[in-house]
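Practice set, problem 2.
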Amino acid sequence: MAAATDLDQTLLDLLERVLEANVDIDLLYRELQDAGPADQVYAALVEVSWLQWVRLEGSANSQRRLRLVEILQACVKDKKIDRRLAMEVFEHDCMQASGLLNDKELEVWKRKEVRFNTKTAYTQSKFNLLREDSEGYAKLIACVNHFGEAALTHDTVPLLFQEVQALIGYFDLDPNRVLDLVLEAGVQQPGNAGYVSLVPLFKAEAVVHLLGFKFQHYQRNGGPAAPDKLYAFAAHLVSVGQVSLEGLCGHLSPSNATLRREQAAAGAAMRAAVDDIGTVSLTSAAVDALPARNAADGKGDEAFNSSGLKSSTKLSSAAIDLDASSFRPHLLHPRPEGNQKLGLALALVARGDLDSAGVLMDSLEAGGLSAPAWPPMAAALCAALAPDVEAACAVIAPKGLASHCALDSASASRAGDAVGAPPPLTPRAVQLLLRLGMFLYTDVVLLTRVIRVLRYQLQLHCADALNPDGGAPSSSAQAAALRDVENVLTRCVLPSTQLVPSNAALASELWCLLSMFPYHSRFRFYQEAKELTERSAFLSAASKLATREVRKVLKRLARPERDEGGRERRETKEAMKPYARMLAKAAHACPTQVAELLIQLAESYSNQIEPISDALRYVTPLAFDVLTYCILARMALDRPKIKDDGINICDWLQNLSTFNAAVCRKYPDMEISAMCQMLSNALRAGDAFDLLVLKDLNEVLTGIVVHSEVSEKQLEGLAGGPELRERAIVSSSEERERSMKAWARGGRRLLSALQRGRPERHLALPLLVLIAQQRHVIATQTESKHVKLIAEMYDRCQETCKQYIRFLQNALPEDEYARLLPPIDVQRREYGLDPEVVFTLYRPLLRRLLFLTCPLPEDGELEEGEDAAAASAVTTAPASAASASTAVVESTEPPKAEPEFAGLTWSSLVDSMRASMPNEGVWAALATEVYSTFWTLDTSDIYVPTKRYHDEIAAVESEIAQADRQINASRSPYAPPGMMGYGGGGGSSAAADALETLRRNKSNLVDLLAKLKAELDSQIKHVGEVRARLDRDKETLFGGAGKKSGKCNILHASLVEECILPRMLFSPEDALYCAKFPALLHQLDTPYFSTLLFYNELLRTVPHVLKCVTTREGANMGIFLRECFQLLSHWRSSEEVYKKDAEACVGFAVSFSDLTSCKKTSYEQYTKLMHKWHLACCQIFQSCLRNEEWTSRRNALSVLTSVVEYFPVVTEQYNALKKLVEGMRDTETREDLKKLAQGYLSLLEREGAKPDRLVPSLQWGGIPPKQGVRKASAVPTTAGASASSALRPDARAFQPKPTDASGRAVKVEEGSAAGAQKRARHADGGGGGVDGDKDAARTVKTEGGRNGDDKERGGGGDKDKDERRDGGGTGVKQHVPRKRLPDAPPDRVEPHAASSRDPSRDRSARDHGGAGGAGAHNDAHESSSKRRRAEAAGPAAEGATDLRSAVLSRSLPVRERNGDSERPTKAADGGSPGGPRAQASRDAAPDDGARPAKGGSSAAAVADSTAGNRASRRPAVRRFRL
């Protein structure tokens, strides 16, 4: 064949060359002689010439065609072409042109051709029926019909063939009738191949038609179906090629159009039947026994039969109907056996001709009929598949159950060592499985074996491709094997498993196979199976049956009842177990549909989350994996996540997050790594709403709760050690023990999910960076006009970030955690993370390296001959070159190696800190030592909540005593039956269990008590060591920055901006730390740290940020300001306290030029500063409350609620704030702000109603207003109350009234020296107005009459004069001796002291300070805040060399009005308020706690003139970094 093809190609090329080059004909003849044998060459030349003739048709090839005609004529003339062959091949025109026929011969040729074709195609052979002898047919029948031993065999076929030919010729029989008899004989013996050998004796087209006629005989309506023998014989003829399948299908019924019409009708009926599942027809005669109907009637165990009679059908596991086989007949025509194409396909499958059967089944599939839906077809396919599966199972387990299982990885690897090992699943088996599809469920045993074979094939041939760390398959064979397994799994195994009613073993086998795939492949399989279910009515029927039964079960689920200890009651658990088993039974078959139903119910009803999660206790790991996929699929749906109000998150997302967390906490089979990956992808896309899922998941798995709304008591607990922090969260010891174990397991699970795969694919660090970066994304890219939503999302992101950081720090070992983190400068510069996040991450490492690098001497003191600079050289030397120049240690000893941990050193971290700062100029004002120390330490390093520890220890001791009493009572023989639930002394097993529980709880409490005491001692020791280190290194904390002249203000401003403000807003614990750290620096007498400058900068800077922070950040700011006001009020309480705790420290020095003999700020100056600080804060709060922005008002109310015990103190400020908040309460339309305003008003009025709580501005240190300027009344008035209420100007304040020698009060006349001193004191104290900077900065007249002064101080009203005559102003003062405030510890002011004092002590504290000792906060009014850090403004005064001048430059300037112009007052001769005259007045004061009189108005003029010359009227604005 190949040689003939080569010859044709050679001649074709030769003829092309002859036509192109006009070669001589002789040359063509020579080439033909060399081409091969002459007869073959001449025959091939005819074919090639005809082909060229056909190609050269058309006018474009006329010249070449003429040349071809010349060549053909020459070849015909020279007899190079066979004339007869040419006339058979050539066309009419070609024969005429080449000279084979002339015109006349051509006409004759055409007529003969027509006659021949007519005779051949249209003329029938006629037989003379009269001549046909019946004897011939009788002999023929006897000849072809032999049975038994005489049956036709392969050897006797030739003889029978000759006999049939002879009978046809002798009796002149009709060949068609003979063929029909032969076919009929073959139908009777379809397994005899001899009859098939007789068929070639007849015409092939006759065989097809006669066989088709036989099938048509059975196509009559109502007639019998075609026999199986006919299908078998026809399949035999088709398989051997004797009959064309296409020709035979033309005779089979139904036609394609009829098939499509019938299947469309059957599909519609099937869909209608499936849609009716679970529906109730009220017009139907038969009443369905639905649980909802029965439950509504109170007849849960009763149902109705078709006759309307009641029948007892209690819901049970046996009564659950999950079998969808009853819907299978609806898939086909009502009479499928009449489908002859389907019958022929069945015969072909039984014959083993899968190719021909596949063609026929594809044709049926195109018409809408699935061949395996017919039970005989499915059984035939399963029977054809069984041998291949059995052979594969023999490879897996050659000896059956007694052999070693080859499904483990070791055996599979050993089996894979065989070179060229064939796959256990043959291509024929794969083809059969794909043909079977979902109908493999009919043979559960075969289905189970197929699953095991697929598992073995994966281990043997696809191990590399399934490795999560691996890439694509290493070879095409592996890729093909993996593709076959995936196709069989998605198109056959998963749908078939869904149709098996309930088989936990089968689900377990399937999970063993699916668990070998990575989760993304498994989820793809579930999605494909879900789409197939939606397309298939049969699978939809199975899923609807499952969901119908699940709905019945869910209606009976109840929320578990819990006892006092938080445990589920045994009765409830036992009652819910049967329903949990029913739910698991339905989930075995259709896990995807059941999971979606449960998720939809949980999204809609939050009260169903706990019952549903509890009911999943019996489902398989496969169901949990499918549940994970369904949860992620529901989260990825394109639906709104914000409610229509544009502010709140949709309930479905919150409920879904809660449900997901609850299920993941209880069941370890949930795929957490998939959730983490999806969350990571969502964060990369900028979707911050899904952070709610991560937050809830982390919280329930690890027990880490971020406390954004904490009370003062909880905040104290969080400042302690681990045991105290846990005790502050979980009160019950038993619950705590259970939770700790569960949280440990959950933390390991979450960490394992984050570290799955290769190291470069771990999600721990990428997820951390994405969460931290998401804060900026939320603030800048959130498409919402509602600030409240943005603030809420920002706070949630910040809480999630803190929670995730704490999880990593707890879950990872320290060295592994250190290797996980990038350097500090990389996080700041490349990742763009904020410093509070970066240093929160690095704090454990910083603390460890700090304590390693700066060890404390064993005795806690410096060694002999060692100074502070030398002791701190180890810390300061590697920090920076600037600090190294000031702390050089000369030693002959070789330098010691710096301690190292996980490849990190303290100096490397400090260098990274310096490199991380975008502005290098910061280090010129702020020393690296104080910056690194501030960010390294934590609250537990500098503060011990002693009272909180003592309270918890007392509570635990009380619980131990209670447990002892219960144990003794249960042991008593006189205990009545059922006493305390123990059955009267423990006679029953339940009583014994309860007694054992009590003993175990007591043991846990005893252990907890010991831990709390040990932790208290340990923290006290640790805080002492840290204080000792700071005290030793305090000389170098502020380095050279504090020594530079004029840099003092910049230093403290940088400290607030770079340290205090970022960390204060991060968390409540950090806010408490930021308040304690400056107080600690003050107590340690830290050089170059000015306490006054710091708080002056702080209180004039930080409150401005209220307008641009979120809600929870505002709450953190409230905690910070409350601690600051508490400390400042403590110093303000009395001069004795001030001298002891404030003035004695270097932080109140006037100048740092000589620290040994520097002058300190006096008490009078401090009171003036306190008044101005309160005034500035009040103005800021008023501005925030007047602002219509939600954030501004919300944060102002939150902070005011936090500091209500200590602010406001001044009566005028109280009235102004109260008036604003009342207006807000009455006019505010936003309900949340209205409620906050009402809550703050309640607290404010409660504080104002306390005796001596408020003090007028003139008595608290303010400057009287200028004459002619109207001021607000100093006495708060309310509706229905007189002016002389509890908030009177004559209230007892910080200054005692003048008395005589006998202690009686004396009257002070206006013209007397005491009156002059009082007026001077008023002039020196500052203004008392609260209407803004303009009123506060107005000129004070130093001389004037009594009427003018009274008019100014009273605000210009007659009513105010009357009030002053009653006891205020310059009238007679009644002196009441005041109690001295007990000395507070110098190192700290306990925030809980106010709640623990008795009323007498509160009153005493108010008598001395007027700002401290108020009642404890009501925790119900402490609300959380939200924030977004924006721009904040604060004053900045640089270049002040004298500290006192610098402090006063921050105050408001005092000017003297001269007509329409204003000028600063000139300094007069006289000392400062702390001069000799003031000292004499203090010495002459009758009470130690009394406020000394001032020397005169000129003393105030000196200070205020300096302030007026050096300070601007308006504070400068500083922009803070976002």
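Problem 2, part (b): a different protein.
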Amino acid sequence: MASQEPICQAVNLSDGQPCTAIATTWENLFCRFHGKQCHGLYIGYKRRNARLDALSNSAPPYLRTSKVPLANDTFTNVKDEKALRDIHAHLYQEYVLLGKVIDARRLHHKHFYPLKMDYGHQAYLDTLSSRRHIVLRALERLETRTAQVLYEKEKWYDWVREVQQEEEATREKESKKVKLEAAMFKRHWNKMQARLRAQREKEEKRRQDAYLEAAYQERMSALDSEDDAEMWDPIEDVVEDERSRYIDLIKHFLWMDVLSDIDENENPSQKPVDSSGPSADTEKPAIPEEKQPKKSKKKSKSKATKGAGASSSTKSQKATSSQNKQANQSGTTGQNRIMQMIEGEAKLEGEHSEPDKTNIETETEMRKRLKEGVEKNYDDIEGPMVVGTIEVPHGTHLRTAPLADEEIDSLMRDIKEIKLLLFCRLLLSHASLLPAAVRASSVEDFLVDPQIAASDLRDLCLEVEQPSLQDIRDACADLVRGDEPEDEDEDEGLFEEESFEDIILQEHRYGHLQDRDWFLKNMLAQRQKLMNNKEALAKFKEYFRKKNRKQGKMKIQICGKSIWNYSSEKSMSRDGWLQFSVMAKDCDLKHAIQLCRNWDEFSQLDFLTVWQYFPASNWVSWGSDRLTQQLHELGFFPYFKDFEAQKLSRYVQVGARSQLRRHHNIVEARNIIVGHMRRNDSVTRRFLQYCAMRTGELLLLVRDGKTGKIITAPQQGELWTIRHKEGLGRASKNEWEVALEVGHDYFEMVDIVRKWRLGFEDYYEVWLWDFAPASDPIPLYNVIISQLRKAWRVTKPLDVYAHREPFLRGLTRDKETLRVRSIRPGEQVSSLWEDVTNPDNIFFTADVVNNKVLESSSLTQKGTAPNMFYNEDDAAEDLILFSDELISPNRNVPFKEISNSITRIETTPATMLNVLASSARKLSKPSKNKPGLYKTNGDDIDSGTDGDDEKRIVNPWSLPQIWEDAILTVNRSQVPSEKKQLLRRVGLLSESSEAIRGGINRLDDLESTLKQADKRMIMEKDRGAACVEAFHAADLEPGAQEKYAETCKILGGILESHLNTKSTDWVWSIVNILDWLRVRTDYDTYTYEPLAPWPHPFVTQDIVKAYVQTAIFFPNLEQCKPMVNFFESKEGSEYKDTLLLKPHERAKTLPDCRTRSSFRYRPKEFWKEWEAVLKEAKANSKFYADVYPIKWNVAIRPMIAKLYLAGVIAPAYLQNSPYVCPGYAVANEEPHRPGKLDLFMDYADRHNAAEYPPTIPGFLTRDQFPVLLPLARAFASKHSSGNNSPRFAVLRVWSAPHFYPAMVGEWNRHATAFLDGEGRTWIWKFIPKDLPISEWSMYNTLKLRLGLLKDQLAVGERVVHRNEVILVMGLDETDLLKHVTAVTFAIQTKPWHREIDLWKSFVNVDLAFLEGLDPYWLD
């Protein structure tokens, strides 16, 4: 029976299917055909083994004599080209023979003994495979050595080697390549059907020939020879077929010889439905067993792959997508997800892999896709979409717009060329293929080169099938690159060096947020700088460059194509990105933006995507929701946000009256959004500055993407985004426990969960979160959008498109297909800009605050919303905040935190000590860069220096030059004993030298003093100087700053001038004053008592300065001549006619500033207009800022900005609500200044926002202050005589129009908080004059200070004050000089931030002068 006949056990070589013929040969194991094949394989295998053995005996001399194993030999000792060729020929022959032996043995076992388990067979194959691998790597090293010998003079050799070494470092293992190859053939199975049919026809023909020759073979069986068997050896056909398969696939990938074209002519019904893989009825390809992927018992782990090249399977992508969906469904998103990741309860997500690029389209398929359009993918949309806008018209929201035939033809031509360029660039990484690629004139010539091994073609085929997105981008850019090399930006990637002081300040302030790498790198740079090692510093900077500099720009010819040795660093054109989007059709824009070289390219790509320029289905979800799209339009690109604060927050409290025990469970969360903005951009700077001034609404943290430096951040206590308190008892008595705060961990976790990232570093990382917890997210979004509009200076809706005008003018939209495309040269069509500016367009703007929609056109505005767009009060404020924009239109400006003298002393203790120590170190070495820090001894008379090389260092411990000259004169003269006793009493006499002490002017003395100095004293001294600087910067009185500058020049000129007379009477006058006040100059201790004016080591400096300030007004006294004579000198002659010395003329002009009356002393009529504003807001249920008069904002916002820049006020960490802030900023006029609006504070505190003490000990109203003029008259009446006429001085302690020079403690600043016309919250750091108790506060401060010298000054009789005005009365000029100097000294010494305002003071005047003064001067 036929069923009992033995069946051939062989497997067909062509399709891998079992043979069904009857077994008649080899003991009924095989049919005749397979018996012949089996015998031929066996004979051929034996013959090739013999040739392989014989080959070892004929090795070249180098290989026979080399003592280095072939696996380790680099052939560096071979320098002759012929010897290298001989070695290569031998190794290549051995490599080919090994391959054939291995393949024949595998084929023999697999196809003829598939069921037989032969472990010896497998062990032998493993030995041969290992030997073949060694020979292959030796061939690669030999190719490298040969190329070095032949091409080392070529410019391109070095960078080719770099590419090859990089490829070798990341080379896949052979086993993985085999699996990848099997998967590749499986994916392209349908494309290989034509080749398989040809193989079957060839094998069937041989089968028929075998039957026809069967009779002859039986007769000649005895004469069956080896030569006859060789005719049936199929191994050569197998090897050639394998090579051809790789070549055909490469041509298919490159659109050179498309395999599917053969199938398209066949019956369509024969094609399988599923294009991703073979169907159940389709035959599987004949893939060797070892090349088929094996199933692993372990769970597959998805490995992260960054943009360059590693491919990911579809399964891993599905798994990742599944995990993300499960995370979303379980609610672990946003900040909840971050907390779980920090606590280790959630798995860390890896990098997002590249999209699947294995489904390579044919040209026909791509044409069809572009012609018909594809359905858009909106899977990642997170918010509402608006359809029917000018960006997304009706008809384009579901499918991409079709392309015109002409545009498709152009794209196809370009893509074909790009594929060839991509292939040539991939060849650079293959050392064994490079010589053939250089020789070949085209890709076709390269592929038919017989010297190319099949394994190399396999590796190349795998790369061509799945190139990385970076490779595709580079190839698209190569298409339009010219012959000239690109200009390199020398500043790009440079290490940005910081000063030593900036590094220390940064670490002190933001060390808890700052990356440690930033501090270490900058400190190392400073170390090299201090060591004056320029070469090491240059190497250090080069090492930390963000990008490797290109060592040389050159081209190489690969397969007839010119390839540059570096990827294009320029922005790719819109046509290039169009080609990229078509080729990488499954790519998401989130992957594409990582390939952008700079912010301009990234911004352009986003813009083109919004306007639907790219026919890619996965690109439309980028920023398509309206909220995100608006942020993108204005240059803010969020990558993490959590607006679930209301959902996360809860307030559970059980009171004492409940049946349960009092307990609480409270959770507070804040909404947060994180995004990127352009670095060093004026728009970014304005936006960030606006946000930094709105701490009552949102909080801001900015990180530099290039350096990692924290540029600004809120105070430590406001970094939290989730906090909770839980327990028994009252919630108010329990402390908050922070569950999540912005910091290192938060940064890292957000970077992990983010869905996209930039491929460059030219950006700022901007973190914004709500100030008030459990808030609705819309107000936060609204504030961000409004501030972005103002940063772009958008005055109407149409202005949003203004900065995109150049791009819009180059694009047009097809009226039929609605396809957006580039306008061709010379084409007359309507541009998108013309469409946008069409007068018929209507713009709708939602006013979230007032719950209405505003309608406007490009020409008219039918409604206005306050604070929604940029207006005149914003412009007025910008003139102050960004005054540099008036001078230079440069947009490349970095954002910097507002820095002034006050912020410096608040953020860094003892800054003067730090700076002085740094200066001392620098001065220890000769330097020509700091000539102003010291003066040579030859130009200076120094009582403590003898050598010519000594230098006088100006420092806080050094004495004025005029004093140094005077005491040197005294020391050179004979000092009477009674005067020495006087000097001893005031601490000026040195017991060792019996001379008056000099200042600390030498470096050694300075270093010793710095080490021993009290740090708190240094801090207070530095704080005093900082306050004075801030006070005058915040003085808004017209001309006041110029007058103060003139005063400083006069006093500084006198103090630092050399003594112009030998008279030393003024020295003894000062000594007598010190003795009279019982004050010493040699204190070596410092008092921490805030009210105590001494002891401290700066008494001499302070008394000398006070004396000089007073003496210039006593020209008739001999002891004042050295000061008065300054105006006759060359340096002082320009100030000879200054109004400072003309009190009668100064008294005629009153200061052009507001009065100092506080809120409670102003009449009700003064606040009438402001009360009407509040009444209107209440009647219409609006926030006061929505009805705040614009003219008021125009007037006072620049004033507030000046106070802010000076450091006198600061944004408050208080919610912008009248229930929290007690004050309002109001603009108004005063009768003496009609038409001039000024800044006033309403501290009525209608909602009891601040707590004030019910009673203040010693409080006086201003009506209870002394009246000065009657006291002067009484003194003059009592002490006048014929020869003696009393003299007077009216001293006014300096104060600004809006505040007194008295610091407010941090614990009291809430009482000074106020809201401005924009709804921003501010606090005063110094007592505002509008504060209800401000007059008494200043009066009491002076009362306490003058009271310390009550007996000496006869306070109440000779010295009387009213508010900040002090009346000093003297019997004569000498007596007045003594008293005025003492008062000035007492006021200006410790804590060193109060001054006598000489321009508003009148010294050495008579009673008639006082009686003629305007009452303002004495009030």
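Answer key, part (b): The chain has a mean pLDDT of 80. The two ends are 136 Å apart (CA to CA).
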